[in-house]
Specification:
Length: 252
């Protein structure tokens, strides 16, 4: 079987960016899901075109090999980003997507490629202090990831057929194993402003865990928004306002 190039821009960028779009926000999927997790987002936030990213190995790229490290993920995505054609852009990531955003930023910096002007980190604590969320500390061999998928689906009001539960559990297990290998580079500063978002009803990475000490590695704006851990899936107006505020800060 011929495997598609992991860096094929048409595969990474789920939707083409209209020629008329002046800027974009690239949305990284978190552990266990793909680009369709952003299906409820508007096509634009303010005047920024929303671009869900589709990594290899999930959803419409299911037959392609999954990146086995954060560096492999970043290498592949960085090869695809010239497709943006010089437009300014930002990054958004929720929970376990944040380390992938950071790795991509540092890889773009190393390559001297255009970087995002800003990023929004939702439900993830200061990256130099480690990983966050209970799943990053369970035993990967014995933990019931199918039960995790069913619990998450129930919270979101979804009912998955059994075959999809198994596939989702396998992907979630893989993603958690990759996440264990991440460590923030010692002494590095994030070279762009960061909006850090905590959610008032988040029982997975609550605001008192999310917000402190980001300022040690970045210039930050901090927000606590109403909602649970999964409220970001709806892209509420309060989150859209965060994008507007961090972009204004980056333009100063």
């Amino acid at each position: 079987m011929t495997v598609r190039n992991l860096s094929d821009p048409a595969r990474w960028l789920l939707r083409p960016i209209p020629e008329s779009a002046d800027s974009a926000v690239l949305c990284f999927p978190c552990s266990g899901v793909g680009a369709s997790s952003y299906r409820q987002w508007p096509r634009q936030v303010a005047d920024m075109h929303v671009v869900p990213l589709q990594p290899p190995g999930r959803e419409n790229r299911l037959r392609e090999p999954k990146p086995e490290t954060h560096k492999e993920f970043a290498d592949s995505l960085c090869d695809a980003l010239p497709r943006l054609k010089g437009r300014p852009f930002g990054f958004f990531g929720h929970c376990g997507a944040v380390p992938y955003m950071l790795e991509t930023i540092f890889e773009l910096e190393a390559r001297d490629q255009p970087r995002p002007s800003w990023m929004v980190a939702s439900a993830w604590g200061a990256p130099h202090l480690g990983l966050y969320g209970a799943l990053n500390f369970v035993d990967l061999e014995s933990h019931d990831f199918e039960a995790e998928v069913l619990t998450m689906s129930a919270r979101l009001g979804l009912e998955l057929p059994p075959e999809l539960v198994g596939m989702a559990a396998s992907l979630l297990t893989f993603d958690q194993s990759v996440q264990r290998g991440y460590s923030y580079p010692t002494g590095r500063k994030v070279p762009l402003p960061v909006a850090v978002v905590g959610w008032s009803g988040d029982d997975i990475v609550p605001p008192h865990v999310t917000l402190p000490r980001w300022q040690e590695v970045a210039t930050v704006l901090s927000f606590v928004l109403d909602g649970t851990h999964h409220e970001y899936l709806n892209c509420p107006p309060s989150l859209q306002q965060v994008f507007t505020k961090i972009r204004a800060m980056a333009a100063q």
